[in-house]
Design a protein that fits this description.
157 residues; mainly alpha; Pectate Lyase C-like; 17% helix
């Protein structure tokens, strides 16, 4: 009887836990705003619209679902960062290091990515309409909707 009860509870618990979403660690958000350094931090779903994070050190951080609209991330270190579903509309990412970043389904409309390093980045489902990608390195990057973006070659359209 116990085995049957346990077997019945497993799908219920998996279903419940599968819908749990984790929010940003408040101390990590505070640390980032104060020091511009928060590598490997949990900043998922953080509200950082308009944040001044020029040259921020965020390597390996979790910024999935983060609100970074109009954020200043010029020359920021975002290598191997999870930016899945992040809102980066009109963000300044000029010369940012985004090597191997996860930008799946990110909104980069109107963003400045001039000279950004996007080598090996996952851009599946990312939107770049109106974004400036002049001089950006897209070697080995996969996916991305570059329709309406500036500075990308025919290979990416």
């Amino acid at each position: 009887m116990k085995k049957i009860l346990i077997m019945m509870m497993i799908p219920i618990m998996v279903g419940f836990l599968g819908n749990v979403t984790f929010a940003a660690n408040k101390s990590h958000v505070k640390q980032l705003k104060k020091t511009k350094r928060c590598p490997r931090c949990n900043l998922s779903r953080a509200k950082l619209d308009g944040a001044r994070l020029t040259r921020a050190k965020l390597r390996g951080a979790n910024l999935s679902g983060a609100k970074l609209k109009s954020a200043k991330l010029r020359s920021a270190d975002l290598r191997r960062t999870n930016l899945n579903r992040a809102d980066l509309r009109r963000a300044n990412l000029r010369s940012a290091k985004l090597k191997r970043a996860d930008l799946r389904n990110a909104n980069l409309r109107g963003a400045n990515l001039r000279g950004a390093d996007l080598r090996g980045a996952n851009l599946k489902g990312a939107k770049f309409k109106g974004a400036n990608l002049r001089g950006a390195n897209l070697t080995g990057a996969t996916g991305g909707n570059f329709k309406g973006a500036r500075g990308v070659g025919k290979k990416w359209r």
